Every structure is written in C-alpha cells, then in structure tokens.
Q: What sequence folds into this?
C-alpha cells in the first residue's frame, strides 16, 4: 500500500511538472499566433533543422546544438569546450528532461545565445522543444 | 596522580590537535554545496571555492551572461545563493589548505583574476606541460582539472595523483 501511494505520488508529481512545460508550450503557441494567425503549430522537423544547423556562436566558433548534445539524443553528450559529460537530452531515456519549466527556460535562453548568438523566438523555442520531445 | 597524568595528556593532546588543525592540509577544501555543483558543474568541473579569493568570485558572478564567452546566466536569487557559498568558502578563508594559500598569495593586490588558470601560482605549476598534451581531445584546456588530476574532485592536486592522457605520471 505504501509503495502504491508512493508510486501514485511520484507519477502525480511528474505529471504536474510536465504539465508546467506543456502550459509553457501553449503560451509560446499563442505568442506565435499573434504574429502569424495562420500558424499550424510547432513542428519537430523545423526543430531538427534548428538543432542541427551550424552557426557562429557566442565564442566566435561555428557550432550547432549537436556539437555538445550529439546526434543521438538518447545518448550522453559532451560539452564541446570543456569536455564535461552531458546527460542524454531525450525525455524517453532521461526523465528529468523537459520536466522543470525553470530549467527549460534557462537552457533555451543560454543555449540559443551560445549557438545563435541571440535569443530564440517563440516559434523557434516551440519547434526545438517539439523536436526534443519526439526523440 | 592518575588524574594529573590524564590532565597532562589531555593538554598535550589538544595542543597537538591545535597544531594539526592549523597546520598544512594539502589540497583545497572540497566543494560540497549541492546547488553549486548542480548549477555550475553541469558545464564544467566544480572548481572548489578555495581556488580563488572572494573578490574574484564576486567579479565572476557579476557577469554570468558573458562567462568565458558563454551564457551561463542564472535567476538573480540563484546567483545570490551561489555567490554566498563561493564567498564564504573562498581562498582567504582556507589558509590552512596549501593550495588555497599559495594561489591567494600569488595574486597581487591590484589583480582580480576570474580564472584559476590566470593566477601566477597556477601558471608556474603548469608551465612545463607540453602544449600538445593540453590541447589534445582528452584534455582540451588547462581548465579541465579532472583530465589529469584524478582526485581533483576531492580537492587533492598532489603530484602522485596526476595521470596525463597519452603521457602518464608527472615528475617535477
């Protein structure tokens, strides 16, 4: 019984956290709709292009998200500059991913700056989140 | 009489303890703050706060948006939390640790380095390392302590724990 309650509690808390992120996606979606009333929703294919295309980043070197996270998001990555291991980005193998809104916002802010040398737009953020969720 | 012996033993014992306490600990105090480790060590080695003096940590934490040319910005309250930990455990507070003391002493009063690798003591200790051993993919840069100092995460940088990839042990 105790285990049952614990499981219930854990699954509820995971559910609560990921709903925080899905609410954020809804907010991003309405932001895009304000700019473009014909917008058809976020798209993991566009997200993949954002994730894999190379740009001159903040350090002045040509990098993409793949430079650190790798091509296979179910495997661990490695920071391109420091060599530090990065846990897999795919939520299907790493339950922590896309579970905390604070963390999602922090990394989108930082990593768009590092790779694109600017903030991501609402559409780009939504697309790249759709890509990561699909992996 | 027994009491007297006991008391003298206690006195002598505590004197020794006092000497050991203030006498040399070899490395730096290990990093223990879980929030600091979680936030900072997601991108790089969890440098011990005792590797730099207070003014260096203050300067570094003022501009995390341009942190060695990457964006490492944090929410203001999280920045404050980490800064507090770094300042409370900075090099000047751990003069009983050999490395903290030596690094801190090597920095001139008018300098505020924000990288351990920019301190005179660090530069002196690493100046004989061949460049190809540093830039090789297993190491990348001198900032990657753990690549060669196998016990750096425990605050120990002693020579016997050095193992340079594709080179091996280091004898000074």
A:
């Amino acid at each position: 019984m105790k285990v049952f309650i614990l499981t219930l509690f854990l699954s509820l808390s995971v559910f609560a956290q990921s709903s925080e992120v899905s609410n954020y996606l809804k907010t991003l979606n309405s932001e895009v709709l304000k700019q473009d009333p014909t917008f058809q929703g976020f798209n993991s294919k566009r997200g993949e292009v954002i994730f894999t295309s190379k740009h001159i980043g903040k350090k002045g070197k040509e990098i993409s998200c793949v430079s650190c996270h790798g091509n296979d998001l179910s495997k661990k990555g490695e920071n391109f500059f420091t060599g530090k291991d990065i846990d897999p980005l795919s939520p299907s193998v790493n339950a922590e991913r896309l579970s905390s809104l604070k963390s999602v916002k922090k990394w989108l802010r930082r990593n768009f700056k590092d790779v694109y040398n600017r903030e991501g737009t609402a559409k780009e953020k939504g697309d790249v989140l759709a890509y990561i969720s699909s992996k | 009489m027994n009491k007297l012996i006991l008391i003298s033993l206690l006195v002598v014992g505590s004197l020794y303890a006092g000497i050991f306490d203030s006498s040399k600990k070899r490395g730096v105090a290990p990093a223990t703050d879980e929030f600091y480790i979680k936030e900072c060590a997601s991108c790089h080695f969890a440098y011990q706060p005792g590797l730099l003096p207070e003014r260096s940590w203050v300067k570094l934490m003022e501009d995390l948006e341009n942190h060695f040319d990457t964006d490492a910005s944090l929410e203001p309250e999280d920045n404050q939390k980490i800064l507090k930990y770094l300042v409370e455990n900075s090099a000047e507070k751990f003069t009983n640790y050999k490395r903290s003391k030596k690094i801190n002493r090597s920095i001139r009063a008018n300098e505020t380095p924000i990288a351990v690798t920019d301190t005179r003591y660090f530069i002196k200790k690493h100046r004989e390392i061949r460049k190809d051993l540093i830039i090789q993919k297993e190491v990348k840069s001198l900032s990657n302590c753990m690549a060669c100092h196998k016990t750096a995460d425990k605050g120990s940088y002693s020579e016997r724990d050095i193992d340079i990839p594709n080179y091996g042990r280091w004898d000074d």
Summary: Chain B has seven helices and no strands.
